Amino acid sequence: MSLDSTLAALAEPHRRRTVELLADGPRRAGELAEALGLSPPAMSRHLRALREARLVEESHPPFDARVRVYALRPEPMAELKAWAAAAETLWSDQLLALKAHVEAETGGT
Amino acid sequence: MSARILVALRMKAAPERVFDAFVGEIGAWWRPNPLFSFTPRSPGALSFEGQGEGARLVERLASGKVFEIGRVRVWARGERLVFGWRQAAFAADMDTEVEVRFEAVGEETRVTVEHRGWETVPAGHVARHGFPDQVFLLRHGQWWTGLLEGLAEHLR
Fold this sequence. Notes:
The structure holds two protein chains of two kinds.
Chain A: H1 3-10, H2 13-23, E1 27-28, H3 29-36, H4 40-52, E2 56-59, E3 69-72, H5 75-106
Helix pairs in contact in A: 1-4, 3-4
Chain B: E1 5-11, H1 15-24, H2 26-29, E2 45-49, E3 56-60, E4 66-76, E5 80-85, E6 96-105, E7 108-116, H3 125-129, H4 133-136, H5 142-155
Antiparallel strand pairs in B: 1-7, 2-3, 3-4, 4-5, 5-6, 6-7
InterPro entries (chain B): ASHA1/2-like_C, START-like_dom_sf
Pfam families (chain B): AHSA1
Domain Activator of Hsp90 ATPase homologue 1/2-like C-terminal (chain B): 12-154
């Protein structure tokens, strides 16, 4: 994935707003266009940019193959959480090591 | 969630003692972490060279080479220590900072570590370093951070 394309995708206010709306749950392109006050072609262009940046994915509800529903992809969140957990683990480990070190000499009392 | 890591732990020793151990004996207690290794040839031995602001935190490798992790920006014995944190893979314009606070809690000391500035990581760094791209979206500012918090709630 290209970070630049992601940043570019999010640099546009309508696209940021789209991502915020999708945070509440999947929506159809028409609903998004209405909420943002955009024409359908403009909305399509923004959704394509978000898809290409892999921030959203489209699916078709089983009852109607003509309708496209857009949803946020969960992976970015999962990866970010994994990274933050790794960095937290780094420092938790260091502090535990420091604690063991300073308490060893005082007998831990 | 943000590009800031915050961890705290209490230990049975006075703040001055914990501070002295942190800076003076880091080589004895530091545990290398492969995810955050300073250089491709790490791990080596960590030490603070000098005292006070301007002291250097370095890693001395088996080869004899010395890698400077960062310089001390605040040195308040028993209270606060702030130093830069760079890994060899970091780009020139990237800088993270570690702040350690030492607070007396009765007979013990609460040590708090705040590691911030990860949002300064440039895009090109990601592939070499294995951090997920999304971390670097934090460069995009607080908007994205707030959004991620919303997403985290949403996806829980």
